[in-house]
Amino acid sequence: xxxxxxxxxxxxxxxxxxxxxxxxxxxxxxxxxxxxxxxxxxxxxxxxxxxxxxxxxxxxxxxxxxxxxxxxxxxxxxxxxxxxxxxxxxxxxxxxxxxxxxxxxxxxxxxxxxxxxxxxxxxxxxxxxxxxxxxxxxxxxxxxxxxxxxxxxxxxxxxxxxxxxxxxxxxxxxxxxxxxxxxxxxxxxxxxxxxxxxxxxxxxxxxxxxxxxxxxxxxxxxxxxxxxxxxxxxxxxxxx
Amino acid sequence: xxxxxxxxxxxxxxxxxxxxxxxxxxxxxxxxxxxxxxxxxxxxxxxxxxxxxxxxxxxxxxxxxxxxxxxxxxxxxxxxxxxxxxxxxxxxxxxxxxxxxxxxxxxxxxxxxxxxxxxxxxxxxxxxxxxxxxxxxxxxxxxxxxxxxxxxxxxxxxxxxxxxxxxxxxxxxxxxxxxxxxxxxxxxxxxxxxxxxxxxxxxxxxxxxxxxxxxxxxxxxxxxxxxxxxxxxxxxxxxx
DNA sequence: TTGATAAAACCTGTCGGACAGGTTGAATTG
DNA sequence: CAATTCAACCTGTCCGACAGGTTTTATCAA
Lengths: 240, 240
What we know:
Two copies of one chain form a homodimer.
Chain A: H1 16-30, H2 42-49, H3 53-65, E1 69-70, E2 78-79, H4 85-96, H5 102-123, H6 126-141, H7 146-163, H8 167-175, H9 177-190, H10 194-213, H11 216-236
Antiparallel strand pairs in A: 1-2
Helix pairs in contact in A: 1-3, 2-3, 4-8, 5-7, 5-10, 5-11, 6-7, 6-10, 7-8, 7-9, 9-11, 10-11
Chain A binds a DNA duplex (30 and 30 nucleotides) through helix 3.
């Protein structure tokens, strides 16, 4: 329950905040805290670590930004549920600072999502299969409204990741949503005709049906085809 | 160059720190800053955003913890290079709070690394191929010292990711290193005999040679076999 | 003019204190 | 015993201060 003084922490990163972060994560582990469990107050940690409240605050805030903990006014900090927020920021930062390009994002997504569609076909509940199919159909229903099509598309991919029952996949797929929102309209516009756009929606529906039918092979193949086609569309738009 | 006052920021997350974080990332984007470029000082941002220095500090610290920026005493903050630090913390947090289990980690790694080995076989430089092979051989050379074997193993996988020339893969593979360090000894011990351990090393060498030979198919197959075998070893140890 | 040196200005890390609200739990009261 | 009230906590934000480390400027000598 008690935390070791700063001097004994192995998490040293030169500054006190790093050690505080180490102490807090250590606290979570040694006490086997889970999502929702409450952490010590800033004042308590401040005393136990012999550092100022500012240091503890910066540590807390850092962990909150990474979504490891939740902060609320008046309430104590709590252990947070996994969330793609931190990874989203990271990916977007990489793209905006020219350290990552769109093709690389597509390659990762293709790799990951071929797997999520396989797993979804094997593990999805009936309810999940229905939701996935609904999203696919919504894309066709709202064909005229590109924004709605995009949101359904994103929801479709995320729901497949959820149905894979592996939270890491959900996080990764979720992390790319921000970037995808920026490139999606380009791909949509760059398709030569409405026929091609309908064809894309068709693949989504076929994929949803493969998952509903519990056919992992077909699901995976369709996902691959979807990405290959999208990459081609993006290439046509000059994103290479 | 100038930052909008807090009131106009769309990044609102209820607290001022979130808006400051938004303003800073926005600044990086609109000014197209890249790794190494300097950011405004805390005092400057404090004035421009009309918030206290504490708020700016928490924002900076948060971004530094996520490795989006680098902080140094006396120096101004700079844009950072991509790094798996943040994702590592996230994954470890997920594992320690029972939101992620080891099988899920293995599934993601298998999925990702089948791809990195494919790409490495296609894109590796000769120097990279040699380094990968060296790591594989080091595992056999240091057979008696499990710790050294492990470090070579980890370096082997990370180098393959690097050779894939997609930084996102490097980040993801790197992010799992912390967790792997904890499970690796279990897998090593759980193998029935030294013969099995040598067999595992053999796969690594074969894989390195497939990458050197530029055979993506073989590389990918060997990586898959490696993970299937490791999963079996872990299963034998009761990690399921 | 130029190049080295010293000083000033700037910057971050940490501390302490202060106050406005929001939250929680305990004492009080009906 | 239940509802209410109040005191104790707690977080969000601000301000001021000071110890070092860093960068720029100014000075001075060659």
